[in-house]
Fold each of these.
Amino acid sequence: MSCNSTRTVTEKSTDTEAVVAKCKTAGVITDMSGLDGCQKMIETKDGKKYMVFEGWPSDIDMQTGLEIMFNFEIVPDIMSICMAESAHIRITCLEVTGGQNGRGKPEKPECFDTKDPLSVKWMKDAVYKHEPVEIKKYNYEDGWAYYLTGGPVSYLYDCQGNLMCEVPGRIFNDCVKLIGTLGQGTVIWVQND
């Protein structure tokens, strides 16, 4: 059921506004397709990532950065090779709350080109969270990618701060293959002891 151009609700009710008020969980669409077997997921403020099994409305593009309010049911006994998701879910209520421009597409977050990671909020947060030894910058598609290395896990982010993939330890995976296609890269930050 469409409420207006920016809100769609999948619960059935005669009172549209009452249904919208029932969508209680805030989330944002995150692209996890850089990880083996993963796809776009809904990430909540507490860091949980939900893979949608069913219930996503066909009239809404699941675009990275799309902000939503939603209700869900966990679908038990679903296995996937992704292993980054907290659970598979069935959407029972959905409201688009942000990240859309006039064409119904999400607004693209700012792409940062920097040599000072601590001057960019998402990078500064990532440095404190992951505690890398160094950060390399690569040309990537229409912007840049940043590779945080040196901890038990290394992380590759796009220039908008979306996690593209991760490398646990010295494991050779699809993320390592992707990084290999990006060329040499430039070291832009080294941890000071």
Amino acid sequence: MQVVVVTGASQGMGKAIALRFAGDPETRVVLIARNEAKLNDVAKACRARGADAFVYACDLTDHEAVASTAAAIVADVGTPDLLVSNAGTFLPGGLLETTPEEFKRQIDINLSSGFYVTRAFLPSMLERKSGSIFFMASVASIRAYPGGGAYCASKHGLLGLARVVREETREHGIRTITFMPGATRTASWDGTDLPDERFIPPDDIADLVYSTYAVSPQTVVEEILIRPQLGDI
């Protein structure tokens, strides 16, 4: 029985990833986000695909809440075989238009939550000496652009965090993989005039996560850059 934990699982890429793994027999999918109602909808869809699904509503920017939630998951469901740190948000704005509160919010959600979640689950994974940690970063982790200062800073930081996790855990049976998708058709792009065909479908990201996880424990694809066919938006 494998345990797959997905943060930010209520919508978008997190939802797609959870549903992709839900098709595997003997899978326990653990869904974490703030919106319990949306999580319950995703859990219902996961169960319809044959997986056991567990909902844990949690504010991932609250390190104490993350620690207590992780302890409950390990006790109730088990140590993650795969931890997908996917929670994130995007608030556009130039540096002078971005308030300190808005900057901090994106750092908290996009970067600090990844640290809190990793720190909470890693001890039990190290004790077992196996497991995978996947970080959902962004093309903005390696490419800066005007009007995205807070987002770029947070995603650059997430890539740095993932690289440190990789170096500190690779000799202890833990695989660390960072995905860096470009524009993906999620709720962040609601209201755009661009056609859906211009974006990466969330299901494509889910398929890449699934296939990357499927390689043997002797192999790790450290970082994956994913872009729309026609390039960045």
Amino acid sequence: MDMTPQEYQAYVKRKAPKSPIVKDTLFAFVVGGAICVVGQLISNGFAGLGLDKTDAGTATSICLVALSALATGLGLYTRLARYAGAGTLVPITGFANAVVSPALDFKSEGFITGTAVKMFTIAGPVIAFGTAASVAYGVVLMLLESA
């Protein structure tokens, strides 16, 4: 059966299930919000222990990364992401998952050539472009403030 690319696209569109956008958006919003609430509760806990705002924020970030890495290692983060979609991409937890997940997938190839190399397969471009974007934003901010 020979098809042109346009015919194939039309065929795929007919066969593909319709995406429940409202339900998916709601789940993403609720789960993303819940992750943020957990982060705020952790931050409030550290502030209650006497840490100033900056130190509480740092400690909260460390806890969220550790919890996300643990949830990824236990397979919980993937199950949650299956239902919540983009809601699990809340920056710090999603980033931790993006680093840990490939590391676990390639651990059978060895510590150096598997885990260490593949760990930054997804996170590497995020780090590189995030750094470049922060430099660009900093230059724009500097130019706006000097004008």
Amino acid sequence: MTYIRQAISASWRSYIQQAANSLARLILPPTCAVCKQAGDLLCSDCRSTLPRITVALCTRCGRSLASQADAYCQRCARQPLLLQQLRTPFFFEEPLSGIIHQLKYNGFFALAEPIAELMVDAWPEIVDNIDLLVPIPLHEKRQKKRGYNQAALLAHHLGQQWNLPVAENGLRRSRHTPPQVGLSLAERQRNVTGAFVVGDCSFDGQRVLLLDDVFTTGSTLTAATQTLLEAGAKFVWGYCAARAMRYQDRAELLTTIS
């Protein structure tokens, strides 16, 4: 099928980089990205310190709830996300934010594997509801400069563990957009509106899990979801390793739930 061919035709550069990482791990013992102790890329002690989201959140978008008795936040009660459901198991805070930074910008590709393991553990039931994994793409100029797409690395590790196909090139960026970091919500929405097009892949009737590393406002996931639904996807779920929240929002969340 087309989307299986997309999984096989993943970036050669990404595979070479991952192979180099694997070779390095055979020659040198891996060290924890946080505590630097030899043994694992992310040791069990440091995994236990990650800022896991355990408070009551909206079952649709994952925002904080006014009451633990509510199922949806006020925004989703008025106008739900296009996504069938969104999950983010961790807050984008240290030490996880540092780990993701190493993966994303410092070429530490091997960290995609333990992050993917954590994502599998945090949402095991989703595997029964999806047919295909689709990572949020980078524009070809940005991917060429970085050498890989961190969302695609996560997708391939998840695909291996769930035995599901990955359409790495199922979506592509139709135009080069500025980074979302530092933009307001309205600016983020304008920045990514119409920024995605379907690649050489059929989404007709497919149940898609859209993957990215960090969720902030949802603008990117929403724009990508719109494209997938217009291409015939039956449902689109969203899954990101971490959720970025303003300090004030995080403080209000913890105060509300406590």
